[in-house]
Amino acid sequence: MSKKVAQSESKEPRPNLLNDPRVRGWLAQVLVLALLLGVAAYGLYNIAHNLNKAGITTGFSFLNQPSGFDISQTLIPYNSRNTYADAFLVGLLNTLLVSLLGIIFSTILGFFLGIIRLSPNWLISKMAEVYTEVIRNIPLLLQILFWYLAILAPLPGPRQAMHLGDTLFLCNRGLQIPKPLLESGFLATPLAFLAAIILSICLIEWSKRRLLRTGRHFPDYSVAAALLVGMPLAAMVLTGFPLHWERPVLSGFNFLGGITVLPELIALWLSLTLYSATFIGEYVRSGIMAVDKGQREAAYALGHRPWMTYRLIIIPQAMRVVTPPLISQYLTLVKNSSLAVVIGYPDLIHVFAGTALNQSGQAVEIISITMAVYLGISLAISLLMNWYNKKFALRGV
Amino acid sequence: MMLAKWRPKPSLPSPNVGPGLTGWFRKNLFSTPGNALLTLVCAAILLVTVPPLLRWGLLNATWLGDSRGVCDAASQGGSSGACWVFIKVRMGVFMYGFYPLAERWRVNFAVLVLASALLPIFAPNLLHKTRRQILLSIAATLTVFCLFGWVPAVFIAFYLFAPFALERLFQGKPFLELFGSQALAVAIGIALAVVGGGLVYYAVLLGVDAKAAGAIGLIALVLMLFLLFVSRLTTTGWRWVLLFTVYPLFAFFMLVGDVFGLPLVETHFWGGLFLTLAVAVTGMATALPIGIVLALGRRSTLPVIKTLSVTFIEFVRGVPLVSVLFMASVMFPLFLPENVTFDKLLRALVGIAFFYAAYMAEVIRGGLQAIPKGQFEAAMALGWPYWKMMGLIIIPQTVRLVIPGLANNFLSLLKDTTLVAVIGLLDLLGVAKASMADVEWLGFTKEAYIFAAIVFWIFCFAISRYSVFLEKNYHTSRQ
């Protein structure tokens, strides 16, 4: 009997190996990997062959060679005798400058838009809605070109420049603003400002603790504001105003002195701000609407004024919803700033992946560096977002 | 004893928010002094900005005429309005780019076929009845016959009526069960498809056009496989099959030409709104399937597949589209052997498709995570293989869930088609920019950009409204 069973067991057909999900999985992976490696190897072989033929040496040594081209806006000292590495740095700083400007102003405008869209006033909320729907549905590139070519380019020349007193001049060469000239002893002012910031933070912490402990109010925000304005001012007075402004002066066909804000920068900054603000406005609106109605009613029932209700009840809860999309919008803005290349604003892509690439021919290295920079920025921002989410997300739900 | 009679006080007058216009005004515009001030400020802003814009764009604008002289005369006469004559004269370029004048009907024809193929799929409420769909198909056929002649009419008739015929013809026993053994059925099916494809190949090769034979034979083979193994599809299902097999081939032959006696039109003649739509439609049709595969890869349990998908998605989402396009135009040719060159448009299309596939993948992944586990488990308990489970159970529910996210991505894709200008293609925006450089029409920058903006706005707004409609439609059907 037992012999019979053993026999039937051994006779049982062995399952086809191809029907085993594990075997199939590994087979698929090996196939995909082999295919990918094959394609990569073929591509690399072609690259080596093509570069050899064009006489281009691979590697990053070209970064130390002089670049030989000028850049129209440099935040650090730079001329055509500087190296490619310096040109890279100039481009990166320009990208960061326009991104930072865009982030600051689009956040302000976006919060404003989001809040007024929820206003009980019909007219103003409709105006915000129309603005959002119009600007959001027009490509950003079109807006950049519109500001640059249709608004800023036809402005009058330097001689007929639009001006505000004799400090600000707007013409087709850009915006001329006064330049601060720093003398010795000016360092005290920023130091005083820094000290004021630290002092204000400590003061607000302390007054919050005291409020929770004793219930007594301290006018912390007014005192902090006074500190923030007063301390740098006092430092200025004590050091005898070591700051002078150099005004732009028209001489011949152009302005001398002052700082020139390029029209490319103005066009890019304006369109990035106006465009991103519509998205930020929508996030803010949805965040505020996500706060339960009962929260607002409870706050009113406790006797909070509308402003205090917003500050203490609504905004903190809304920020939990708003922040993740807000930060990814910042990321999008940084990436969108690469559209600068179309109007010739000297950002990272224009200077490095454009001019430097055309001059040196090091396509692989330059594109890799450029992409690595953007990847680094997004990685940093997404790390920040994860940290924030961990810190402020609702717990135990 | 004095009885105090309870006498109610007269009731207060109703709050002064009556019905009618005044009441509405009082409630929405002048409820508090602050609100009234805000309203007045807004009204002032509107009064300052809107009338000059209207005067420039409509009242003082030049509409009639066909040369620059009309606009110059108007501005000499003191009116400072827009010159829409510029747009009118250049309308052909704005729509078709530099596509040869005599061949523009081909673009119209391809767009018309696409529209009449898509309408029954995307307007389910309007065209849910078979009779209405047939009426639409007849109307489209007649239109094509009147506009382009009988050969195109025969094609569109075949294309539009095939789904109805296919649905009715394949109602019997599935092919796989005809022979008892599945392996035998698969072998016979593949053999039949190869033979069918080969026959079509030789028929086209000998009878019509040698250049088109290979592609047509291949499509015939694929269609045969569909016919044999994926029987019992609905009419809409067959429409999708045709849309992804026959239509691309047809559009390619129609737009590029060089077969069936159509003159060759190379892609650097393409431009205008036509190019924008071509890039957008191709991008959407390719990015979504790739995105679905990437999303499935990211959720896969196979480590290699998962790592590759995650790396690709995160890499692409971290870099701007401009740099991807730069890579496609500068670096990609280096990866190819010396004498192989890729069309510039094709390079842009590949770049856009893979770029947006990563974003689609993230949207799809969000939907996949929202599908209840029971759905997977039920499909597995029925013994369904992975792709059948995904294709018939999971993906349809996922796509339905993530419609808003997909529509958002489609919108950004449509707006980002303008970036092809970076690598030198002339889409609607590029054409607008190029026509400003026309010596005869210098100085009409605003008109060109505003026209392009209006066109883009109409398309984007339509997509966003359509996604709202779809969301509501599917939401009610799920309840």
CATH architecture of the domain at 84-153 and 263-392 in chain A: Orthogonal Bundle
Order of helices and strands of chain A: HHHHHEEEEHHEEEEHHHHHH
Strand content of chain A: 5-15%
Can you tell me the overall shape of chain B? globular
Query: First CA to last CA of chain A: what distance?
Result: 61 Å
CATH class annotation of the domain at 267-479 in chain B = Mainly Alpha
* CATH third-tier fold name of the domain at 84-153 and 263-392 in chain A: MetI-like fold
Brief summary of the model shown:
The complex is a heterodimer of chains A (397) and B (479). Chain A has 397 residues and is of the alpha+beta class. Chain A contains 13 helices and eight strands.
Word description of this protein:
The complex is a heterodimer of chains A (397) and B (479). Chain A is of the alpha+beta class and 397 residues long. In chain A, 68% of the residues lie in helices and 7% in strands. In chain A, a hairpin with a 2-residue loop joins strand 6 and strand 7 (254-256). In chain A, helix 4 packs across helix 8 (263-290). Mean pLDDT of chain A is 83; it is low at 4-8. Chain B is mostly helical and 479 residues long. The chains are: A alpha+beta (397), B mainly alpha (479).
